[in-house]
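Pasting two entries for a bug report.
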Amino acid sequence: MKEAFLLQQLAQRQGQHAFRQLRLPAPGAVDFCSNDYLGLAQSAAMQEGVHTLLQARPYMHGSTGSRLLAGNYAWIEEAESMLATFHQSGAGLIYNSGYDANLGLFSSVPQKGDTIIYDQLIHASIRDGIRLSKAQAFSFLHNDVADLQKKLQHATGNIFVAVESVYSMDGDMAPLKEVATICEQYGAHLIVDEAHATGVIGAKGEGLVQHLQLQNACFARVHTFGKAVGCHGAVVLGSPHLRDFLINFSRSFIYTTSLPATAIAAIVASYELFPYMHAAREHLTALITHFRKGVAGLSTLYSETPIQIVLTPGNEATRTLAAGLQAAGLDVRPILHPTVPKGKERLRIVIHSFNTIEEVDRLVTALVH
């Protein structure tokens, strides 16, 4: 059989209880799965905002080319300026996704002889960008500032330190103040992925970096729009020189068709909404506190963010628990090895501002009993 080599690896994955399949959410199930933290992806206000913006100017459904050819237009540059201003950065460059942004940033900026030091739980998109880089790279123990310092002592060339402000599979936050201080001591360039902090952390959802007033300590920040922002795309924030460099050397920016105006309208509409969603963020915080009290007796990871983790070691056990929750009308998904280390399999529970106390109580009851 011509595809035996595919079937062999698929069978191996099935034997490990790690076979991935696409599935649709059960109709009517309570959402404890999506990254739509503020409900903007399904928001009527968001839809109205997008509609209003698109009515105000002529647009096309496709951008018709890459930014360096036919795909650049005034609105996308205006959006980049707006994003840079909101996030207190010198400049911004929009990418088609967070994956593209991290791939393009890390594969192009660090050069041969440079060093990248990254948190061992860093996102796969950053790891893939690092693999494409010519720089040497080392991981440090998760959120371990002492181990980061040890790695920095042996770094050469231009040094880049990569962390996430909120980690997508653990829900915890990086010790950014300590990391920024050490980077300054060693002359390292700090890069922060704010994907899971955007919209949620800070008085206006500006992210953890600005919440801690560390924007001037960062070489680059990546804000993605597929989570709390409720749409699609990403922006790399940094100096105007970094923006020019990425336009010239970042392959995932250069060699792809740019986002169309409809996508830009959604980004702009969201940024006109989420900074003022104070009540939604307060309700979200209250739900997180309520949930954590309810599952205090379970094996969990500490998190103050919408991402809550219940550890359920073993792929088969985790799948079984998730299936039981889904049968009860609670959309909770299992996170299995190899996405997480063996023995660290888990239920990744996401709490949203549109969830209710009653829904959280249903979930807690199902987990505890």
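Entry 2 (this is the one that rendered wrong in the viewer):
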Amino acid sequence: MNDRAIRLSLSLALVAFAAACAGPRARPEPIAAVHAVESPLSLKPVEPAAVQPDPRPVELARVTFVAVGDVLPHGAVKGSAERWNERDEAGRSLNFEGWGALFAGVASELSRADLAFANLETPVSASGDHDSRPFFFNAKPPMLQALMHAGVDLVGFANNHAYDQGHRGLVETLDALDELGLPQAGAGRDLERARRGLRLERNGVRIAVLGASQFFNQSQHVSADPKQAQVVKLDSPEPMQAAIRAAREDSDFVIVSLHWGVEYEPQPREAEVQLAHRLFEAGADVILGTHPHVLQPIEVYRAEDGRTCLVVYSLGNFISNQSRFYAHRVSPEKVGDTRDGAMLRFAIVKRDYGAGVSRTELADVSYVPVWTDNDHLVRKSKELPDIRVVDLERSLERVRAELEALTANLAERPSKELERQLVELKKRLELLSRRKEIIEVRLGPDFAAQRETGRTP
């Protein structure tokens, strides 16, 4: 046997010997068993992360509120309503004896709010003198109906003209408001109810509205009997502070209408500022100032209990015949201030902060500038004027659209009529733009409303 054969035989013998030592061959594990074996390289399933609660407060309810200033039915304002009075064949009024036309330009803004407020600076007395005279006012129910139709839901009646038709006129005004279903704040069938103010509920939010006036023109008509009809007098802060504290006991949000300040002054006095702060600390959330007949600034105040509060020291006039001789670029600009106004907007929001804690808070403050159109200067001596409230931004949109349409069709030599229209449109554009700028300076640009475009007034 050669060497190669010897080495092959030896190798086979060694393999046989090793197999003999190992014993019987083990059966292979099934595949499933192999997969079940734990391995450091195996991928473990990822557990879904626990959903964390949103830490932000949850809005539970919201009430939108709009407030406008003084409604002054001067004789010329009544005449303007008469100008637009339309009746059907049976003689029935179609537009609240013409008053509807005076508020049509702002009705969409007022009616979109859950609550809209106006300062009713006139009695509505059936037995009084229906022709407003200097320093004395009176109106008829169609004016109230037109305000309601435009969107006004409540009025303030604590002001210096509340007794213009005597104590009887006050009672008749309360009767007229009750008959129409138009709530008021600042007056009542007796002193206790007058001081208690108004309680409303909207969208599950309880709202108190109180009112008071620092002065009355016809104070001789104020009854000394607290059980007789009264308008709340703001002689000192303490009674109003007490009324506000009482209102907080059964309300979520407290609004106070104050007739105060100095007429035609563009800034509040330090006395009004300090009074506002005291009433905020007593529990008021919003103060709506009236009487100066011109706009005064907006202030945001942080109360010691953490509430954010708001005061507009004067909302200015909503409608009147004041500044009827104002001519843009001819009169001093301040002469037109009594025709400037604003629709103050804010939201009352109830929020859930968790752990059983909820708060009702002020939110989303803004204003819409308005202007009282009055064409007295272009009317003949006995011709009724056209007086109406307009939304400045909507009016500007309309003028720009008319101007664009006119200039697109102008020839190189336009007719005299087209020249006249061009001049008038550009003058009106300049007037409305300037009054808007003045209002934004007075109230501040921060709260100027951001409006969508493409709508006409």
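Dev reply: Rendering is fixed now. As a check, the viewer should reflect this: The longest strand covers residues 357-374.
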